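User: Predict structure, ligand pyridoxal-5'-phosphate.
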Amino acid sequence: MSNIKNIHKPLIITKPVLVNLGEMHEQLEDIWSSGWLTNNGFKHQELEESLRRNIFDNLPTSLVSNGTIGLMLALKALDLTKGEIITTPFTFPASPHAISWCGLTPVFCDIDSRSLNIDADQIEKHITKRTVAILAVHVFGIPCEVEKIEKIATRYNLKVIYDSAHAFELELNGKSIVNYGDASVFSFHATKLFHTIEGGAVVFKLQKNKNRCDLLKNFGIKNEEVVECGINGKMNELQAATGILMLTEKDKERELRATLIEEYTRKLQNVKGVILPEDDHNISKKSLQYFVIRIEESTFGCSRDVVYDKLVEGNIFPRKYFSPLCSNENYYKDLSSAKKNRLPIANRVVKEVLALPFYGGLEIKDVEYICDMIVSIKKLD
Ligand SMILES: *Cc1c(COP(=O)(O)O)cnc(C)c1O
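Assistant: Predicted complex:
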């Protein structure tokens, strides 16, 4: 180990895709000559329309300033203002925060050990008189059990919101993932494959919900009159211009990432104790947002934390997504649904996950280096 230590250039978890600077300059010239910088400008209109038609199966789409505001706007637009929302502890804190920020209470439900998503079979036992919705997350681009969730929601008259921050372009049997639920919320943060530096989109099932979201994201102002208590959730023209260019840029990035997945899979598929991402046969197009493995200590021979520390010594910087669990964060840990013994799978899995470096600029030989390191750590133990 010591002779390879630090000879390799640092390999970090991700690098944002940068749009072509010359093309960005042309976009800026357009914006400068229009003099329109924000508030549903030309670029905003163009990006919203393109995304709706080309990515979101023509469903009502509203661009927003970021994914977190998008989640909050989705809840408000669906009239969810009090009660409980059943959600997953295994997510980025933005998901339960959006629930709390809107005055609702998150109720954590355990996850499925293969998909790492909310376990649809355990949702019903959390339903009370106060339950108003289910907020599920397509974690790492693996789809939730959308049909089961829909059945439960119909039976108990609940709204369904998907945090789709990892699910841009995810398709199930040829259909965009946005066809499920009342709203799907996307993050276009710089670390997401498709991004607008900061930004996001909410895709609704119903046009009336999009109209309400459009109103709410602009302070609730309609025809110069305040008709609702809104917020500022608007995407500006520079963000939208970045998105327009990303629409052509993203496919190159997707191809590169698909090759990296093949290489990671080839190198790691026969390593005992390394669990690769679930291969769901209903997925007809992947989101390619992350590449996350699990280290199962009993079969691998040492823990994820040991692997992590050794990789860092080798100048590789993976991430322990999503550790700690939201339910173990100070702000949430006193909720009765946050108790560790009620979330056994999530509390086990969170000690096993390791998001490996994954971005188009990563070279095949970098992937080989990372995988060889993982194999050598196993042998060491
Ligand atoms: C990135 C992310 C968000 C937050 O999106 P922002 O655009 O950064 O506000 C929310 N949920 C999940 C699961 C994410 O990964």
